[in-house]
Amino acid sequence: MTTHSAATDIGLVVANHGRHCIVETPEGKRLPCTARGKKSEAVVGDRVHWRPTHEGARGAEAGDVDEGVIEKIEPRRNLLYRQDEFKTKSFAANLDLLLIWIAVEPVFSESQLARALIAAESVNLDICIALNKTDLPGAQAQRERLAPYVAMGYTVLEGTLKKDAASWRAQLDSRMAGRATLVLGPSGAGKSTLVNALAPGARAQVGEISQALNSGRHTTTSTLWYWLGERDAEAGNPGFDQRTALIDSPGFQEFGLRQLEPAQLPALMPDIGEHAGDCKFYNCSHLHEPGCGVIAAAKRGQISASRYRIYAELHQELGQSRY
Ligand SMILES: Nc1nc2c(ncn2[C@@H]2O[C@H](COP(=O)(O)OP(=O)(O)OP(=O)(O)O)[C@@H](O)[C@H]2O)c(=O)[nH]1
Ligand SMILES: [Zn+2]
């Protein structure tokens, strides 16, 4: 709760673009804020302490305050990175669940799926894989591609937004209730349809927010935080941590994994990790060593060929990015 005797007010970052953020107050008011120091870039999901930009605004009616300065970012439970051709950048914090939204068509990339899972495991996010468009004829083939992920313990849901949106809602509601869920998926899988189904009207806020953030310039890449459900309908105006939220990161291509060491991979890939204790050498890379439990399991088919290939590719990639 905000008390005007405190030095700063608490808020939640619901959108950001560089050092410029939109902060939401516990009362639900949204206002543009700027981070103070160069190094203190807040991201969507950050809990921040902010104060009104203009002297004298404090103590005035809350409605009079129209701009703020972020003084401090609360410690984060987790922080996620996204990667494009040029750089890796943090984009969201304090999330609970990663919903990986893929479809029968366009056929999903297993390598992108594996990367997303590793990123989520590395920050202790709960994970849910969702296969959409099961009304299409290729459904069985894609189900089979996901079988190794079911076998290694991941939750894999399926359905068709087009033919039965209610069933998707029923599957997702209890998993998302009271949590902050990041939804990610390749273009064309139906993510926009999903966001519209779960948060009707939410996309309309986007124009408003991007206008406030960068004076009208179109931002397709900014991450946004949506509340699901009516504020008033929820008991006693619960705090940021108790409400159901959906985080959408349009234009997201790939998770940044460069902060990871190759040796961390087995612990973040359950099927690889399961056999990593069977190796002759304690520091086995599982790429070429004799007596390797992982290689043996891959030969027996207990680790799928594609998963082993993805492991080897990532091992090399993460090894190269060290300097
Ligand atoms: N057959 C079928 N089509 C679906 C289903 N769900 C969504 N679609 C269609 O898939 C197409 C893509 O859906 P969008 O929601 O625009 O997909 P998106 O992932 O947001 O794609 P981008 O906007 O390109 O990022 C649309 O034509 C939808 O009508 C489904 O369950 N089955
Ligand atoms: Zn090994």
From TrEMBL:
One matching Pfam family is: RsgA_GTPase
List of residues binding GTP:
132-135, 185-193
Q: What class of enzyme is it?
A: hydrolase
EngC GTPase domain mapped to chain residues: 93-241
Sorted alphabetically, the keyword list is: Cytoplasm, GTP-binding, Hydrolase, Metal-binding, Nucleotide-binding, Ribosome biogenesis, RNA-binding, rRNA-binding, Zinc
The answer to whether the entry has keyword tRNA processing is no
Identify the cofactor(s): Zn(2+)
Q: Does the keyword GTP-binding apply?
A: yes
**What biological-process terms (Gene Ontology) are attached?**
ribosomal small subunit biogenesis
Q: What is its EC number?
A: 3.6.1.-
Looking at the record's lineage, which domain of life comes first?
Answer: Bacteria
GO cellular component terms, semicolon-separated:
cytoplasm
- Cofactor binding: number and manner: Binds 1 zinc ion per subunit.
Q: Which residues bind Zn(2+)?
A: 279, 284, 286, 292
Q: Which GO terms describe its molecular function?
A: GTP binding; GTPase activity; metal ion binding; rRNA binding
Question: Where is the major localization of this protein?
Answer: cytoplasm
Q: Where does the protein end up?
A: Cytoplasm
| Oligomer and partners | Monomer. Associates with 30S ribosomal subunit, binds 16S rRNA.
Provide the family line: Belongs to the TRAFAC class YlqF/YawG GTPase family. RsgA subfamily.
User: NCBIfam families this protein is in?
Assistant: ribosome small subunit-dependent GTPase A
What role does it play? One of several proteins that assist in the late maturation steps of the functional core of the 30S ribosomal subunit. Helps release RbfA from mature subunits. May play a role in the assembly of ribosomal proteins into the subunit. Circularly permuted GTPase that catalyzes slow GTP hydrolysis, GTPase activity is stimulated by the 30S ribosomal subunit.
Tell me what this protein is called: Small ribosomal subunit biogenesis GTPase RsgA
Organism annotation: Rivibacter subsaxonicus
The gene that this protein is the product of is rsgA
